[in-house]
Design brief:
The complex is a heterodimer of chains A (about 160) and B (about 350). Chain A is an all-beta fold. Chain A has strands spanning about 5-20, 20-40, 60-70, 70-80, 85, 90-95, 95-110, 110-120, 140-150. In chain A, the strands form 2 sheets. Chain A has a 7-stranded antiparallel sheet with strand order 1-2-3-4-7-8-9, with no helix packed on it. A two-stranded antiparallel ribbon of chain A has the order 5-6. Chain A is elongated, with a radius of gyration of 21 Å. Chain A starts with a strand and ends in an 8-residue tail after the last strand. Chain B has about 350 residues and is mainly beta. Chain B is built from 2 helices and 30 strands. Chain B has helices at about 1-20, 70-75; strands at about 40-45, 55-60, 65-70, 85-90, 95-100, 105-110, 115-120, 125-130, 135-140, 150-155, 160-165, 170-175, 180-185, 190-195, 205-210, 215-220, 225-230, 230, 240, 245-250, 255-260, 270-275, 280-285, 290-295, 305, 310-315, 320-325, 330-340, 345-350, 355-360. In chain B, the strands form 8 sheets. Chain B has a 4-stranded antiparallel sheet with strand order 3-2-1-30. A 4-stranded antiparallel sheet of chain B has the order 4-5-6-7. In chain B, strand 23 (about 280-285) and strand 24 form a beta hairpin. The radius of gyration of chain B is 23 Å and the shape is globular. Classes of the chains: A mainly beta (about 160), B mainly beta (about 350). Chains A and B meet through strand 1 of A and helix 1 of B.
Chain lengths: ~160, ~350
C-alpha cells in the first residue's frame, strides 16, 4: 500500500437544553467515509481501489444525557457498519450497534469531591465482533469511585 | 433565525448522505446446496489470514472444472481454525493439519463431514498414514525450534507416543518399513533427515544432508530426493550463508549418494514435487520452476515455467501442474493450471494464501 484516498462526510450535532433544574444534552454523530487503496507496490494487486480492511464506511453515535444537581444519567448508542476483513473486499464483518448506560453521582465535603459511577455496557446484549473470530462481551458493567482533592468549595 | 437555517442545511446534508447512490451492503453469497460430494478433484488448503481468521479448503472438480470454496465450514457450520497447513487423504478420510490451532480436523473424504479432531499438537505440519490404525504427524514443537513425530491412534484419534527428531520436523515419506523425516530447522536451522522404524517407532539413524531440508520425494528406483532450502545469514542480512541443495539418499544404505548444490546466494529452492511415473522432479528456484530427471546427475539450467509460485502440486492423473499465487497475502489467491510442457491451461480463484494441494 502506497497511497490511500479518503473522502466522505462527517456530521456532528449538539443540542443543550435546560428545563428548570434539569439540564438536557443531546448529541449525534454520523460518518460516511470511503478509504480506498490507490497505489500498490505490486502489479495486479487485488486490493487496488478497494476499501481498507477493518475501516467501516459508516459509523454513527447518539448520546442523551440528563443532569439534575449532582446526579447524571447518560445513554449512548454506537453504530459501526460493515467492515471488510480481506483486502480484496470479499469477506466482511456484519454491522453492530451497542447501547451503553452511565449513571453518576457526585458528593462533596468541604474541599473533597467524590464521584461514584456505574457504567453498564452492551445493555441490549448485542452479539458482535470487532476483530474476526474474536467474540466481544455481552452485557458487562463497571463501577468506579473517583476522588478529587483540594476542590473549590461551592455552595449550592 | 440563522440557527434554523443552519439546522435545515445540516438536515438536508444528512438526508443526502443516507440516500447515496452506492449500495453499502456487501453481497451475500448464495448458500451451497446440501448433499454434495467431493470426488474426482483437487483439495486446495488455504492458510487464511495470519493473526486472526481461519484457513479454508477449496475443491476443484476435474469433471465440471468448477470450484467450490470454503467447503469445510459449508458442511460443518464452523471454521477450521487458524492457519491451515496441509491436507492428506488416507483410507477414505481427510486429515486437515491446522498449524496455529495445534490440531488435525478429520473429515469424510467425500462428504467432508467432520469425523473428529486430533488435539494436543504444537505447530503440526504434515500427516502420513502408516497402517489402518496408525498415523504420523510431523510438528515443529514449542517455539518452532523443536521437532517431533506424534504417533496417532487413528481409531481413538489420540496421540499415543512422541518420537523426537531434529528441529522442525516437516516432510515425510515411507520406504520399506522406514519413515524418512526432513528436519527443516523450524524457526532455527538443522540439516538432517531422521529415519524412523515404522513398527517400533524407534529412531534408526540421522542422515546429514544440506541446510534446512524441507521437501522429500521417492522416485521410481526407490531413491529418496531431499530438497534443502539453505540457510540465511542472521537478520537483517538477506543472503544465504549456506546455499540450497538437492540431495539423493540410497534407502538401502541410508547414505547420501548424490549432492547437487544450487548457485544462488539469495534464492531458496522450494516446493519439490514429482510426476506420476516418479521419473521427473520439479521445484521452484530463482522465480522459476525447473525440472530434474531422476537419472540426471546435474541441475537443469532451463526452466519449465518462468514464474514464481507460493505452492506447487502435480496432478497424478494427468501430470498437470497446480501452481498457486497468494497475491498480496490478505486477499483471495489464485491457482493456475499448467500442462506437462509448462503452458498455462486455465486458472481459478481460491481462498486466502493457497499453499498445498491434495489430489483425489
Amino acid at each position: 500500500m502506497l497511497q490511500v484516498w479518503s473522502r466522505g462526510l462527517e456530521y456532528k450535532v449538539n443540542v443543550n437544553y435546560a428545563v428548570r433544574k434539569f439540564k438536557v444534552q443531546l448529541s449525534g454523530m454520523y460518518n460516511y467515509v470511503l478509504s480506498t487503496n490507490e497505489r500498490s507496490t505490486t502489479t495486479n494487486d487485488a486490493a487496488l481501489g478497494q476499501q481498507l480492511i477493518y475501516v467501516p464506511i459508516q459509523n454513527g453515535q447518539f448520546n442523551f444525557s440528563l443532569f439534575f444537581k449532582a446526579t447524571s444519567i447518560s445513554y449512548t448508542q454506537v453504530y459501526t457498519g460493515y467492515r471488510y476483513t480481506t483486502s480484496d473486499n470479499t469477506s466482511y464483518l456484519k454491522p453492530y450497534s451497542v447501547g451503553n448506560l452511565n449513571i453518576a453521582q457526585t458528593l462533596g465535603w468541604n474541599t473533597l469531591k467524590i464521584k461514584v459511577y456505574a457504567q453498564l455496557n452492551n445493555i441490549w446484549q448485542e452479539t458482535y465482533q470487532v476483530v474476526a473470530y474474536r467474540a466481544m462481551p455481552l452485557f458487562n458493567c463497571q463501577f468506579g469511585v473517583t476522588v478529587y482533592f483540594n476542590q473549590q468549595k461551592k455552595d449550592s | 433565525m440563522k440557527t434554523k437555517t443552519l439546522f435545515n442545511l445540516s438536515a438536508l446534508a444528512l438526508a443526502i448522505t443516507f440516500t447515496s447512490c452506492k449500495k453499502d451492503d456487501p453481497e451475500t453469497p448464495a448458500p451451497t446446496p446440501v448433499g454434495v460430494t467431493y470426488d474426482n478433484g483437487v483439495f486446495v488448503s488455504n492458510e487464511g489470514p495470519y493473526g486472526s481468521g481461519t484457513g479454508t479448503i477449496s475443491f476443484y472438480s476435474r469433471s465440471t472444472s468448477g470450484v467450490t470454496n470454503d467447503i469445510f465450514e459449508t458442511k460443518n457450520s464452523y471454521p477450521i481454525g487458524n492457519v491451515v497447513q496441509s491436507m492428506e487423504i488416507f483410507n477414505g478420510k481427510g486429515y486437515i493439519i491446522v498449524n496455529n490451532a495445534g490440531k488435525v480436523e478429520i473429515v469424510d473424504g467425500s462428504t467432508f463431514a467432520s469425523n473428529g479432531v486430533i488435539s494436543g499438537l504444537t505447530s503440526p505440519r504434515y500427516f502420513l498414514g502408516i497402517d489402518n490404525s496408525k498415523g504420523y504427524i510431523s510438528e515443529w514443537g514449542t517455539g518452532g525450534v523443536n521437532g517431533a513425530i506424534k504417533v496417532v491412534d487413528l481409531n481413538t484419534k489420540t496421540v499415543t507416543a512422541t518420537i523426537n527428531t531434529g528441529k522442525g520436523a516437516e516432510g515425510m515419506v515411507k520406504v520399506g518399513n522406514n519413515v524418512y523425516v526432513t528436519c527443516s530447522g523450524g524457526y532455527d536451522n538443522d540439516s538432517v533427515v531422521t529415519v524412523i522404524d515404522a513398527t517400533t517407532n524407534a529412531v534408526v539413524t540421522n542422515i546429514t544432508v544440506g541446510a534446512n531440508p524441507k521437501n522429500i520425494k521417492v522416485d521410481a528406483n526407490g531413491k529418496i530426493w531431499v530438497l534443502c532450502s539453505g540457510q540465511y545469514a542472521p537478520y537483517p542480512a538477506t543472503n544465504l550463508v549456506k546455499t540450497g541443495k538437492l540431495v539423493r539418499i540410497d534407502a538401502s544404505t541410508n547414505t547420501v549418494d548424490l549432492t547437487l548444490p544450487f548457485a544462488s546466494a539469495y534464492s531458496q529452492p522450494l516446493n519439490l514435487v514429482i510426476n506420476n511415473a516418479k521419473t521427473t522432479l520439479y521445484y521452484s528456484y530463482d522465480g522459476k520452476v525447473y525440472s530434474h530427471l531422476s537419472t540426471a546427475t546435474a541441475l537443469n539450467a532451463t526452466a519449465t515455467i518462468n514464474r514464481n509460485f507460493y505452492g506447487l502440486g502435480i496432478d497424478p492423473t494427468n501430470d498437470y501442474f497446480y501452481a498457486s499465487d497468494a497475491g498480496n497475502f490478505s486477499s483471495n489467491g489464485k491457482v493456475i493450471r499448467y500442462n506437462t510442457t509448462g503452458v498455462a491451461v486455465d486458472s481459478f480463484t481460491v481462498g486466502i494464501i493457497p499453499g498445498n494441494f491434495c489430489f483425489k
